Amino acid sequence: MAEISEVRRELALDCFLLAGKVMMESGAETYRVEDTMIRMAVSQNMMDSHCFVTPAGIMFSPSNDLPTRFVRIHGRRTDLERVARVNAVSRRLVAGQLTLQQAYEEMTEIEKNHYLFPLWLQVLAAAVASACFLILMGGGWADIPFAFVIGGIGFYIVEMVLVKTRVKFFAEFIGAVAIGTLAVLVVNSGFGNDPDTIIIGSVMPLVPGLLITNAVRDMMAGHFVSGLSMGAEAFLTAFAIGAGIAIVLSF
Amino acid sequence: MNWPLEAFLSFLAAGAFGIIFNIPRKTLISCGLVGMSGWLFYRSYFLMFDDPIQATFAGAFIVAIVAHILAKIFKMPMIIFSVAGIIPLVPGSRAYNAMRNIVENDYMEAVDFAVQALMISGAIAMGLVFAEVLMQLYFKYQARRTQKKMGFTQE
């Protein structure tokens, strides 16, 4: 391994850390990030590298006599398209279809871009999901337009408050309060039939599904730090939603 | 139970969640199929044996198995397919009822619902774990077989 030049080694390290950072920021599981980084390192002849990934930062040590590097992960936002893209680049690097330089350029390209669906489409998707869940959870057909509108509004409010305040639990709390208020208003004014199913359906888009799956898979793979912190985040999110609904119901 | 209607609704819901989680565009349809298979399995098990916890376990198990297979086909992370399929199994209505009963000061009823919600969440986790272990065993077995085959052809 001594024949790897200094510049190339720096580039390799940058490339691995960038890949890990993008994946972690976009909502990948911890163990997948570690696995990807180690595979890439092995493909670049760094055999005894170690890496430790938490939701807040990544440490990567290429070998015993090289310095360890660290990156901090700030905001996280679910964007599974980026995870898939980084995964594809790392697969091609490991298979030898890309040189290190090409892989690094593609990674920076992915890091700069966001592949999010436009907000109106996400709101529409949340509205459709709410309406579907209303029926699946045993609601009546007459309530469908209310679940559709309220689910969309709730999701939009959460996104807006999140942009303004950057506090996730507060945004979810406000969204849940809005959903509860609107549902109770609709039923009290005589249009809707059952406030319970309308609320359950409209709240569904806010459920922390990604966090639950990630927490379970990380705990299983032995990453207890990340698993527990993701589980705690999922629990807090559920608690914020529940508290928001409870406040409305208690009046 | 109206099978085609529920199939269509769960397909639509899982696809919509795919858009919320921003999965790659070409996987949207297969993501909806994962959600549909999980929900239909959950519902039919529930109607047959009337046990929400076992039914959720079965649903989560199916979701994870199908997601693993699709991940192999598409060569993408398994999480892309499993996330949207898990959402319909989340015990939303039980958690809601627990919260509602707490607000109405009916704590015994609330604990009942809360424990059910907790057990169902555990069942989702166990379903994911079982499917994962099973698939890993299968892939290991398959890898060993192909290795053996290659060994024979080389000789």
From TrEMBL, chain A:
Any GO BP: succinate transport
Instruction: Describe its membrane topology.
Output: Multi-pass membrane protein
Which GO-annotated molecular functions does the record name?
A: transmembrane transporter activity
Q: Membrane-spanning regions, if any?
A: 115-138, 144-162, 169-191, 197-216, 228-249
> Keywords on this record?
Cell membrane, Membrane, Transmembrane, Transmembrane helix
GO cellular-component terms in the record? Answer: plasma membrane
Q: Where in the cell is it found?
A: Cell membrane
Q: Does the keyword Membrane apply?
A: yes
Q: Does the keyword Transmembrane apply?
A: yes
Q: Pfam families, per this entry?
A: ThrE
Tell me where in this chain the Threonine/serine exporter-like N-terminal domain is found: 16-251
Q: Which PANTHER family match?
A: SUCCINATE TRANSPORTER SUBUNIT YJJP-RELATED, UPF0442 PROTEIN YJJB-RELATED
Family, per the entry? Belongs to the ThrE exporter (TC 2.A.79) family.
The protein here is known as: Threonine/serine exporter-like N-terminal domain-containing protein
Automatic annotation (TrEMBL), chain B:
Record's Pfam families? ThrE_2
Q: Which domain of life is it from?
A: Bacteria
Q: Which residues form the Threonine/Serine exporter ThrE domain?
A: 7-133
UniProt GO cellular component terms: plasma membrane
InterPro entries assigned: ThrE_2, ThrE_Dicarb/AminoAcid_Exp
Q: Which keywords fit this entry according to its UniProt record?
A: Cell inner membrane, Cell membrane, Membrane, Transmembrane, Transmembrane helix
User: So where does this one cross the membrane?
Assistant: 6-23, 28-47, 53-71, 78-96, 116-139
The subcellular localization recorded is:
Cell membrane
Record has Electron transport as a keyword: no
Q: Name one GO biological process term.
A: succinate transport
The annotated topology with respect to the bilayer is: Multi-pass membrane protein
Classification via PANTHER family: SUCCINATE TRANSPORTER SUBUNIT YJJB-RELATED, UPF0442 PROTEIN YJJB-RELATED
> Which protein family is it in?
Belongs to the ThrE exporter (TC 2.A.79) family.
Instruction: Please state what the protein is called.
Output: Threonine/Serine exporter ThrE domain-containing protein
The protein's organism comes out as Planococcus rifietoensis
